[in-house]
Amino acid sequence: MTPFTEAVLQIILDIPKGKVMTYGQIAHMAGNPNGARQVSRILHAMSKKYNLPWHRVINKKGEISLSGEGLETQKQLLERGGVKFLNSKKVDLQNIYHS
DNA sequence: CTGCTGACGGTTC
DNA sequence: GGAACCGCCAGCA
């Protein structure tokens, strides 16, 4: 477990309900400005072992990067938290959390 | 240990 | 405005 991974997990857990963050933002805050991709890897791997709110993480366009059922699951979870959607994939950019 | 993959993002055509 | 390319490096077989 690298410090980067830990930081990423912390940040994700720290995202307030009803807000979302982009991979790039998280990576940058975790101390790795170019580690957006690693964030996605961490999400995938760690959400199985830990109970992570992975659904609060989206790409920079403000869209959900998944498709099919994953997309619907994420959408449901976000809407349940009060996040508004502009369309089936895109999240309202005002819901993006920045500290 | 080695190599491949990828829930991304910035830059360059 | 949009497609293509490249760098980044943590997991996993």
Automatic annotation (TrEMBL):
InterPro entries tied to this protein: ATL_DNA_repair, MethylDNA_cys_MeTrfase_DNA-bd, MethylDNA_cys_MeTrfase_DNAb, WH-like_DNA-bd_sf
Keywords: DNA damage
Residue span(s) of domain Methylated-DNA-[protein]-cysteine S-methyltransferase DNA binding: 3-82
Official protein name in the record: Methylated-DNA-protein-cysteine methyltransferase-like protein
Organism: Aquibacillus albus
